Amino acid sequence: MAKANSKAHKALLTHDYLGSENMDTNSRGNKNPLSSPCKATTSHKKQKGEEETDSNVSNSALLAAIEGLQKMMESFGADLKQNTLSISNIAKAVEFNSAEIQDCKEKNKQMEKQITQLKTTNEVLTKKVDNFENKASNLDRYQRKWNLRLKGLKEDKEEDTRQSVSDIIKKIQPSWKEKVDFILDSVHRIGPKNPDHPRQVIIQFTSRFYRDELWRSTKQHPTCRELNIRFAEDLTKEDREARLAVWPRVEQARKAGLKTTFKGKNVTFTFLQETHSTHEDSNFWTKQWGDEAFFSHGSSRSAGVAILLKNFRGKITSIENDIVGRWLILTINIENSIFILVNIYGYNTLTQNKILLEEIGLRLDHLKAKHSTNNVLIGGDFNLVQDEFLDRWPSKYEISYPNPLFTNFCFEHNFMDIWRHLNPVTQKFSWFNSTNKSRIDHWLITNDLLLLYDFISDISAAPLTDHYLISLKIKPKNNTHRINKYWKFNSCLLQNDHYCKKIKSLITDIVNSKELNSPTTKWEFLKYKIRQLSISFSKQLKNELQVLELDIIQKLNLYCNKPNPSEIDKQNVLTLQIKLDNMYIQKTKGAFIRSRAKWIEEGEKNTAYFCNLEKRRQQRNSINSLLINNVESTDEKLIGQEIFNFYQNLYTSKFSAPNSNAFLNHIDSFIPKIDDSFQNTCEKEITMSELDKAIKRLAINKAPGPDGLTGNFYRHFWEDIKPLLFEVFSEIFNNSTLPPTMRQGIIISIPKPGKDPRIIENRRPITLRNSDYKLLTYIFTLRLQSGISDIVSESQSGFLKGRSIHNNIRLVMDLIEYKDLITDNGFILFLDFYKAFDSVEHQFIFSVLERLGFGTNFINLIKGLYDNINSCVILPKNTTPRFNINVGIPQGCPISPYLFILVTEMLALYLKNCDNIAKLNVLGTDLIISQLADDTTLFLKDSKQISIAIQKIQLFSEASGLNLNLKKCELLAIHDTMLKEIHNIPIKSEVKYLGVTINKNPKLNSVLNFENKLKEGNSKLNLWLQRDLSILGRIYLTKMECLSRLIYPTCNLALPNYLIKKINQTNFNFIWRNKPHYLKKAHLTKEIKDGGLKAIDFECLNGTLKINWLKFWLNHPDVF
Predict the structure, then answer these.
(1) Quick one: which of 882, 877, 622 has its CA closest to 749?
(2) Segment 172-215, tens digit of pLDDT
(3) Coiled-coil stretches, from where to where (predicted)?
């Protein structure tokens, strides 16, 4: 231990923890960092004993110090480790906190974005809520327009409020007694009960018309004063406040006499701007409008203009428009005057408007030069005012300040603002909003038009727009001619029970009247009152329908503008659309009737189509130009005078009694006499059963005579008017005198097909007679039909039962086809009588009836039909003066054809028994004449007989008034001849006879009569392919447009197989829209009950027609 301690001691000494100053510094001269902090003890010398004792003490102390130091070092190391660990943990915490802070920053950014989005969404939702509130308010306001409030009506505990209101309405409007239940929708009181004051009553009406009519009627009605009640409008709170604010201005306007009305109901051209239409809208717009419509499309959200036509009688010659929907130009020809119409929708910027007006100016310069006209009208929304002071409010100018762009455009192109011209200092506006007003909608006309026409222009309110309606009415200066349109009964009135009750009541009152002393007087007065009542009722009904139509359109707009319509809204839209469609279907039917068209199928309801047919028919029949002394004239006065002179001369009698008696005496022995039975039939009194048969013959949906009453009216009220009409006809039969209205007619001059309509001789006068006249003549027509076939020879095929026009055609064709069997060098002479029906003398008719043996009563009746009758001719704008009809049989009178064939039978008897004319011999049988009414054909042995025949016919002409028109007579040689004409009558190798072309080469007849008709039918069918028709509609069209054209020639001609196949191919390709045929022809032609669609196989049709010929021949061998 001593050694060890000694060694340890030495080691410690070597380390010199006690040390000296020399030991404080290391070898490099630096202070030793491990040096003790204790102060150094002073060195001194010690004794030996002391040294040992001190040595032991030092060792112990050193050991203790060492142990203490070791513990301190261990503690220090532990602390150091702990601190190191803490520092590491702190670093990790700092790193984590930094990541958390960064994440919070990102989340904060996202929250800021979400807050921004929520703010935007909130703004959108706020706008939507405001929009919904506005729409709800508008809907509430709109629904209240059907309501009235009743104030002051006494309230009882067990009252029937609806019945009380109904009784009050009946007192205010007595004419509504029968329909009050229909007029009222709902009636109820509102608000809590108050014992001191009766609650108000809300009355909801089924129609705005009735609501408005009652509202107007109650204002000064004594019933309201008696009951101390008052009707008021059902206004919202906002409307009441607005009404109070605007009322002083309304009073001021009333005092100034200002009034705004909605006009434009009877306009020819309607200019629309900002239509927002596209090409897809064209069909719908046109269909809803019901007439022609022209568009310049923009987009579904901007621009677009349109011009809508209504009953336009002229012709559209050119159409121009731009591609962005800012302008549309129509060039029209009306009564041979050219007009250029421009519809414009200006931009909102001055620069764009300047470019727009420059473009339109260039277009107008080109069109004016092209058509040689200065007649230009521009209408539309220019987005420019004419005067910045007069035409804008509020204005920044204090005096007149013309707009430079607008003024320069008018000056350069010779335009004037017609409204401002008529109202130089008036301030009136066409556009408005809550703070501004301006007159930016204009009609501009060229100055030249002011010299020729008078203008009326007005600015009035219009529905569904923030613009006013600007109307322009034009009429020629010094126009003394009034457009004279005869009244026509509106058959739609027959569906109105209220109207029918009124008519029946009127009939009863007049029939039982003691002041009117004869049936004829009662009947004439009844017709007058029926017309008067019908006109007034129609006007009232029209106004109601217009209100209803506007109401439906407004409701449709309301529902269609909803952003999220409900199922109920969708159902309401469907219901309203059906109502609107039905209204337009009724309009379509009117045009359909007037156009003489046919319904293709129930789904074909396009108003425009029938309106166009009607317009084309009117244009075809209209007399806008006429050749007068070989010079074309468009002057209305000259045309009217020429037509009057022509028909007055035409219907002037030139009857020669000696010539008539001489001719009839010559053939008297050949004239057959009617038997007693037939004579008694014609002589007997009129019976009620005959009247019932006559009404069945009276056609419906036909143009009436001057009194305007149609066959529809007579049939509907037949049981009511039959007793009076029976008495009238009996009186006429006994007195042989017609009432004044039955003696009048209206002539429509219809151009003959393929002839120049400017030549008046090429027009056929059709006389419209009153329905009562037709009923009377139907009675005696039926009597004539019962026995006339016995006295008219088989050579006459016209109008007689059991005789056919095809007999006449086949006779001529057979003579040509079998000419080898004819030995005579024969000729066929086709005669043409000039205005045959219109030139036969009345006295000659009466003489013929006497020679045939008709009795006095019948002859006197016929005389009464032609005694003191008169007519006028309808012109485009009026009618000619009336002129007497002293000759002629009116075309349009039921009995006229039968009287006419009795006259022409005298010619047949004369020629058949004339020994001077050599007849054509065919296999031992002599042929001389074939007739179909006035179409007369003579068969002559040789060329020498032609002059003889014409001379003989001249005798008949002098007696009857029927004169030959030699310019239109034709000859057909049975055998070949070198002659070109005989007696100035041309010899043809091809003639058109009774609608069939007959060529001397029989092989060409099929081509001539079928190829062109098939092409025409095919072109018509192709036009129909553009329309959306069902297969049933297309099958019907094959019958109407194609087969109907071919049946007539098919009855007379043999068809080659290739032509039959071609016809079938045309029809069935159309049925399948030129696509693959999904059903065989055999299935398609079956009856519907057998699974087919009743299509027609032309091969079967052709065979059927030929079999019918054979059957007819077997039953009537003497006719051939």
Answers:
(1) 622
(2) 888 888 888 878 888 888 888 887 788 899 998 877 777 877 87
(3) 94-135
Say what the pLDDT of residue 848 is: 96
Query: DSSP H helical segments within 883-935, as ranges?
Result: 896-912
Does residue 499 share a domain with residue 573? Answer: yes
DSSP secondary structure, 835-852, as one string: THHHH-BHHHHHHHHHHH
**Which residue, among 460, 819, 436, 481, has the nearest Cα to 639 in the 3D structure?**
481
CB 619 within 8 A of CB 313: yes
Q: What is the CATH number of the domain that holds 174?
A: 3.30.70.1820
Range with the lowest mean pLDDT among 772-776, 826-830, 892-896? 892-896
Give the whole-angstrom CA distance, residue 342 versus residue 307. 9
1043 and 983: one domain? no
Write the CB contacts of 103 (distance below 8 Å, at least 6 apart in sequence): none
pLDDT for 464 equals: 53
Calpha distance 876→637 (Å, rounded): 11
Check whether 736 has a pLDDT greater than 80. yes
Rounded CA separation 168/173 (Å):
9
The label of the residue with tokens 């410690």 reads 12
Query: Is residue 620 in a domain?
Result: no
| Alpha-helical segments (H) within 372-496 | 404-412, 418-422, 447-452
3-state secondary structure of 751: strand
Nearest to 790 by CA among 686, 703, 699, 682: 682
Decide if pLDDT at 710 tops 90. yes
In a domain, 401, yes or no: yes
| All residues at 6 or more sequence positions from 67 whose CB lies less than 8 Å from its CB, including other chains | none
Question: How large is the average pLDDT for residues 426-451?
Answer: 85
Starting at the edge strand that comes first in sequence, how are the strands of the sheet with 337-345 ordered? 315-321, 327-334, 337-345, 376-381, 441-446, 415-417
Predicted confidence (pLDDT) per residue in 263-297, tens digit: 335 788 999 988 888 887 787 777 767 788 899 98
Residue predicted with more confidence, 663 or 86: 663
Domain that holds residue 171: 146-232
Residue listed under structure tokens 């060529």: 999
Residue 699 lies in a domain: no
Residue 415: helix, strand or coil by DSSP?
A: strand
* pTM exceeds 0.90 for this model: no
Asked if residue 993 lies in contact with residue 937, where contact means CB atoms within 8 angstroms, the answer is: yes
Residue 433 has pLDDT above 80, yes or no: no
Q: Which ranges of 961-1002 would DSSP assign to H, the alpha helix?
A: none
Q: Checking DSSP bridges between strand 870-873 and strand 744-751, what pairing results, if any?
A: parallel
Q: 446 and 498 share a domain?
A: no
Report residue 246's pLDDT band, with 50, 70 and 90 as the boundaries: very low
Whether residues 460 and 535 fall in one domain: no
Question: How far is 299 from 275, CA to CA, in rounded Å?
Answer: 9
Q: CA 889 from chain center: how many Å?
A: 39
Provide the 10 A C-beta neighbour count for residue 736: 16
Identify whether the C-beta of residue 991 lies closer than 8 Å to the C-beta of residue 998: yes
pLDDT of amino acid 21: 40
- 1109 located within any domain: yes
Residues 363 and 499 in one domain: no
d(CA 445, CA 410): 9
Same domain flag for 448 and 497: no
Query: What CATH number has the domain bearing residue 441?
Result: 3.60.10.10
Please give the tally of structural domains in the chain.
5
**d(C-alpha 91, C-alpha 81), whole Å:** 15
Helix (H/G/I), strand (E/B), else coil: 1053: coil
Residues 768 and 766: their CA atoms lie apart, in Å, by 7
Beta-bridge partners for 315? 333
Distance spanning both ends of the chain, measured CA to CA: 177
Whether residue 426 is found in the same domain as residue 304: yes
Report the alpha-carbon distance of residue 435 to residue 433 in Å, rounded. 6
- Using alpha carbons, select from 1052, 1056, 1044 the residue that is nearest to residue 1106: 1052
Q: How far is the C-alpha of 144 from the C-alpha of 205, rounded, in Å?
A: 10
